[in-house]
Write a structure and sequence with these properties.
six-stranded mixed beta sheet; homodimer; mainly alpha; 2 domains; 26 helices; Transcription Regulator spoIIAA; 63% helix; 6% strand; 589 residues
Amino acid sequence: MKTPNLAAWLPILQWGRHYNRDTLASDLVAAVIVTIMLIPQSLAYASLAGLPPEVGLYASIAPLVLYAIFGTSRVLAVGPVAVVSLMTAAAIGERAAAGSPEYWALAIALAFMSGAMLLVMGVLRLGFLANFLSHPVISGFITASALLIAVGQLKVILGVKADGHNFIDLAWQLIQQAGQIHWLTAAVGLGAVAFLFWARKSLKPLLVRLGLPARLADVLAKAGPVAGIALTAWLTWQFQWQAQGMKIVGTVPQGLPPLTLPTWNPALWKELAVPALLISVVGFVESVSVGQTLAAKRRQRLEPDRELVALGASNLGASFTGGFPVTGGFARSVVNFDAGAQTPAAGVFTAVGILLAALLLTPALYFVPQAMLAATIIVAVLSLADLSIFKRTWAYSKPDFAAVLATVAVTLTAGVESGLIAGVAVSLGLYLFKTSRPHIAEVGLVPGTEHFRNVLRYKVLVDPCILSLRVDESLYFANARSLEDRINAATADRPALRHVVLQCSAINDIDASALESLEAIDKRLADAGVTLHLSEVKGPVMDRLSKTEFMHELRGQVFLTQYQAWVALSSGIETSEPVARLLRQKAVA
Amino acid sequence: MKTPNLAAWLPILQWGRHYNRDTLASDLVAAVIVTIMLIPQSLAYASLAGLPPEVGLYASIAPLVLYAIFGTSRVLAVGPVAVVSLMTAAAIGERAAAGSPEYWALAIALAFMSGAMLLVMGVLRLGFLANFLSHPVISGFITASALLIAVGQLKVILGVKADGHNFIDLAWQLIQQAGQIHWLTAAVGLGAVAFLFWARKSLKPLLVRLGLPARLADVLAKAGPVAGIALTAWLTWQFQWQAQGMKIVGTVPQGLPPLTLPTWNPALWKELAVPALLISVVGFVESVSVGQTLAAKRRQRLEPDRELVALGASNLGASFTGGFPVTGGFARSVVNFDAGAQTPAAGVFTAVGILLAALLLTPALYFVPQAMLAATIIVAVLSLADLSIFKRTWAYSKPDFAAVLATVAVTLTAGVESGLIAGVAVSLGLYLFKTSRPHIAEVGLVPGTEHFRNVLRYKVLVDPCILSLRVDESLYFANARSLEDRINAATADRPALRHVVLQCSAINDIDASALESLEAIDKRLADAGVTLHLSEVKGPVMDRLSKTEFMHELRGQVFLTQYQAWVALSSGIETSEPVARLLRQKAVA
């Protein structure tokens, strides 16, 4: 390859040179299917974000093309997604009235900021920051967002008014408004929800039973939402339901996406900085996890830092063409993959399809009931909600459960931004708390071997003159004092003690605070006539320790293995009674 | 013991019952020495905090008595200290004019809040929170605070006006004011600094050479600052220096400490909450580290959670008797220890001494030059500054160096509160960053042994069909993806690969995110025809893993040792060429 660097940053140069008629055919078929699926979704997510429906189409054109140029995933489809749309509404909902030009301008500014942040993070290779969102926090956040979106759309389906900003408010208002339900709207909306669930689950098998080829049945099943939109629009026009108070989409401007510029307003940017950052990170995490799952299936690789650049370019593209924040969507990317898309060119073809829809199809959207779009959203987001995350984290890891609980509870009660921040804070806080109280085991020799094991778990040999401790954590400032306390307590208990051996096999790092603690431990033990030794110190740790004063002043030895320490230091041997000890330990605690 | 719980919370019940004439004599001698030392210090630290000098005396009476009742250290002396006084001035300096009654009321409120916080932290056993202040951050913070205090006092010594809030401001103003120096004040102040440094270092040896007994020489040397105060006050009175523009202490009210109540003002409390918390934590950390160092010398133990209660009671005591935030001081505790204090009763006797000073001595303070007090402060704080922390952390640990640098730079430029927060944020951030990029070593068999070592460091045996990886960190959300990336990259490189063995000897925990990553790794490897195995999984980790779906679905095995995995899986063996590999690795990177 003549241009490795350029090709690395512009993956299009790699797949573009192998492009041929076969890949073209595959990409075209996939593009048709994804376009059919994207039209209703784009309209729906724009209205979820509080924007006019055509903005959803605009946000699905330029971003797809830009991702095709810069993205490293072959099949990721970029555009408006549910959670990011909800976060957009939350970020700007209190700063302008939904549907107003100011509101739209704020959405454009948010896309611009998010794009710029993603680009900068990509260039600075800060993709690892997304790792601080743990899987349980993401699951909890997406689940809570889905519930929040679903209850918010329920008001559209029932034709009532409610404008709370949290789940409890919204649910309570819906209950209070039960008398005001617009029954025609509710019938259409609930019917649409039922139809969409059915189409998703049973339409394809039905069509196959009716004798259609599986491939065609699949395409037709994907067209379910479009058929639903067409049918309800036709019925509305036929029976003039809008005259009976049912809300419809109304006039949608026809034409190319407008060229827009984000407002130059540093004060506003400061206000939107945190929401824009959160939208960027959530969008990136969602996009990368979808992309990686799909890439692995074909043994391809995703480059997270380049994905940041690609998503940044996509969002900047959205902001210059009247769009709002976008990212790689789960459902559409899976459909693209299943439909056989081979290269990002499929995304370009999809963009052309959506562009045609924006140019030609918008008049046909006039009679589409808003409740139909709400039904599309509800069915889409409920498939994202995963309540089993509570059960799974409870069974496996209580700290993860606490992080999920905090994320879900705060998202539902205080909103998406607070929920995400709470989740990250709780998961980091509990991780730090856990590492600040390391597991420190007293170990003894397994008879007949050279292995050492926890005296509380195994029947092992111990020597009253030697205390062998294994610290199961790197030593750093937050846990250095724990070790001091443990050794202080142990020496106070054992009058016969002459040697303390720290088995360092699980210590991957010792920071400056922990080094000072080791110095303090050594001095205190020396005062008490006890010698401190180390064993099984890892290479990189030993490299650094060997340059310190501590190692020069250490009166004890550094043994290669714990067994060598035992052989060198042992005098009288006893057998530990693990069960008795365990019971005594519990009685004391 | 009949009342173990009560005695645990009231250590006075333990040492009180063994009190006899010998301990009384030791405590009395120590109390006299500490009282002599405390009088000038208390006056000086009160003026450092922006308060009238008598407030320093008030803050050294009730807190000492309360600490004697609740404290677990036998020798800790509680009262105003330099860093906490500076933090007090920083917290309330912008809310009221120094010296005004409002200012004093704010100081009392701060002592009350700090006391309440410490008490609550003690009861909830939150002492471990202080562990998140790393040693380098504390050293850096104290050093920067000392520099800030010293440059602030320099203006008093030179008799000029300057009121910047950061080091650069203050230093710059001092330079600008060079023409306004009040030479008489400067002569007295600089003379006092020189005398105090000399007295600290050379007075005792001189007195011994003059034939005094060592013990008496020691007491007289400790009285150096008092002698300096007496001398400068006498000279000022004699030559009426105050008439020539030298600032003196002036009228100091004579009498018992007043009974005061903190203002009931929730809005104010909210504003002071963060400074009060930082003062509490810094005071606690300073106090406990002094206490633990001294306790260890006599093989006594300090209970950090009970120290919180004792310091909380001391600060509440200060707030009810017209004082300001206090903590266990380094210099006075060491003096108390060296002077032979045996029990906290020495603190009570010191309190009586200070009380007598407040009742009888204050008229004698009228002519004390303010520059003399400033000299006392400068000499005290410069002994706290430790610039070697930069060199030591740079040599041992770059992240610790970065934390020190951030702490010092932000403290000097933006103030004590921001500096402390910056230090904690940087040290936690870098710790998390480090653990998010774990050291993952490919290991091979050391010929003739059962040990496995890094292929880049040792000449070891490797098998092209087996990839043996040792992860030197617990697996959690922030580093789970690193492992995925590493294994993805390794499988792409090795066509012959059939087995991946994760040696888990350094993995102390696997959280839910990492578990999902392991599931994803297993699935991806399976797709590529490679089997994932584990070895040397620790007991607690295995206990939890065994309940998961991952372990049921894992197609590979869990080996007790890496060697057993090698024996079971190996087919063809090669010898690694560590040097060549290392070079190649470097050339690629």
